[in-house]
Amino acid sequence: MNIAVVVSHVNMNNNHSRIEVLHSTEVIIDTYLHILRNADRRWNYFADVRTLSIAPFSIEPIKRAMLDARKTRGTILRFITEITKDNISYCKQIMENVELRHLDGVKGNFGVSDTEYIAISATLTPTAADDIPEPASTTTATNTRTSIPHAVYSNVKEDVQQQQYIFEILWNKATVAEQRIREIHEGIVHYQTRIIEDSQEIIKEISRLTASSNELYTCLTPGGIQYSYNYFFHIKKKLLHNQKHKGIKYISNIDKDNLEVVKILLDVGIQVRHVKNLPPMSFGVSDKEIAATIEKMEGGRMVQSLLLSNERVYVNHFKSIFEELWENGIDAEHRIKDIEAGAHLEDIEVIQSSSRARELYLSLLKSATKEVLLVFATTGAFVRQEKLGVIKLCKEAAKERNVSVRILMPPDNTTQQTVHNLRLNHGENMNIRYIGVTSSTKATMLFVDRKVSLVMELRDDSKATFDEAVGLSTYSNSRSGVLSYVSIFENLWMQTELYEQVKKANERLKEHDKQQQEFINVAAHELRSPVQPILGVAEILRSRKRQGDGIHNKSLNVDEEYKLLDIIVKNAKKLLLLEDNILDVARIENKSLMLNIEESDLDNLIATVVQDTRDQIDNSRIKLQYNKTEGIIFLVRADKPRLVQVISNLLSNSIKFTKEGMISVNLEKKENQAVVAVKDTGHGISADILPKLFSKFTTKSEQGVGLGLFICKTIVEAHGGTIWAENNKEGKGATFTFRLPLEC
Q1: pTM of the model
Q2: What residues make up the domain containing 403?
Q3: Is 386 found in the same domain as 313?
Q4: Are 124 and 132 spatial neighbours (Cβ–Cβ below 8 Å)?
Q5: How many domains would you assign to the chain?
Q6: Are residues 298 and 365 in the same domain?
Q7: 165 and 214 share one domain
Q8: What are the DSSP E strand ranges found in 384-440?
Q9: Beta strands 6-7 and 661-670: pairing type?
Q10: Does residue 112 fall inside a structural domain?
Q11: Which of the four, 98, 265, 464, 591, has the lowest number of CB atoms within 10 Å?
Q12: What angle do CA 722, 655, 642 make, to 5 degrees?
């Protein structure tokens, strides 16, 4: 709300709603008296410690006005303030005349009646001294010891109701004064946790915490050391002369910048230790309270936000964190000698606490920007750390930050599915390989961005949790040390790569041996099939010839002789085809398959092959037809015999698997390409054969060695075309299709 009216005196006879800013102590006190004299049912007052000590009971007219309101009109007087050891006697005096309640950390000053309210400046201060003054007994309205910078008055109904509502909330939260005073007398601690966001107030509170401590432990950033020295060193130095005090300990990252301050702390008897990896917040903990901040305090910069608590659970928690850090810290004197000698022992840290190693482990994974290398010595280590969240962090690094993650681990059936899912879902950024379990010292090894390493020794692989299983750990950011470990990892990685290559080569050899054996078996069968009829028919001809020339003078007639000779020719052609196929495969393998390219009419080629095939079909239940798109000349540059070989092979294949029905050859033009499709109504292509249909030795037939389609594919591709096969959508038979580029 913008306050537009600024006056030096309030006209109390004006009954209109108004808001006014008051700048004179005399006017403010007159207004205060006016509100009290008009108060009917209630007068509620909320005041911080200093304001309460000055007004209202230090100003006699106000005191009389309140007492008169209570006595003559029955006005209820209620006050809220912070009751402390310092103002307890004054509060007892106030309690004789008003209802008083206590609230921690009271800031601000306002009073509200049934119809009016006044808010007095929070900077109201005594002019005489900084100490809290005793109640005054002056009878004038202008106490020479009191200065009130300004106040705000309002009789606007909505404003008054709002202030009444606020006061009621605070009143219900406040503690009855008698109870608070009893707690103070009996030494009962009032537990609270609060945030302070005023830099001067923060210094005041840390000073109080320090001065009231019986022991004090502080964990600070390097900049925090300077801040602590600037504002609290004199208090801590004084504490050390108190024989009852148990001592002061500091933990920080000691470097060249704070070296001299650390020496001063050591000289006065403060214990200091160096820790490389500090927690993400600075904190101090006494036997009663904790103070913590997430600010870095570079260069001793003042703290702007502080968490303060005397809750026992927080005190114990921060104390346990400090003790663990202290246990793993390096004595400051050793650290100082190393720095002054130019050593860099901060590069290596031996971590005895498994929980500390766990925190560092997870923190390093979260910090990775380029690469994570991990070695799990056992399957148990992988399982434990997956539960810990290590694998989840690796997945996040790979997916969200594009970090390359490589993992070496022992093979095991229990982790096989997990590894498969990781490889499947995270692609190239998540690569996992298997290594054998070694009998030497086992350790989980982590390398991040080739800058830091963490080696965690395995103490007991039978344990279920990381903390129970891990022993000593070693952290390092020494370039030479880390790169040495990375070199070991790369060697192991290469070994697994060679192992995988050898394994795949062995699998290929086994598959080749299997295919070779199958080929030998099939080839032997295929050779036997035509050879036996040839030999049989030859024996018949020879036998009949001998009989005709000699004993019985009985010879074959011409028709019989032609039939027998047809059998010989037919089976001889089978042998020739088998030989040609084997030779073609050899040429393909040796990359010596030659093509005699010339311009050819694909239409005439197909028509000729179809007619020849139709003449040779023994099965009358199979119909063979040829369809083409009319009006198009299908000129291709090709090796005619090889194209004939392809078309004949596809037709022979369809005839072989079709007992009855239709085989059609279709020729059409698509996108300046000739498309030839051989479609049959046979029993189709088996699902297990389909993916490798055009590979060598792939067949489901008892006839043939599985070379025809392999040769067809090679010939078509050598002509710049493509070939494929699929089962018919109608659910019966298959279609083999190939494309060849047309001459423009």
Answers
A1: 0.37
A2: 345-477
A3: no
A4: no
A5: 4
A6: no
A7: no
A8: 404-409, 430-434
A9: unpaired
A10: yes
A11: 591
A12: 40
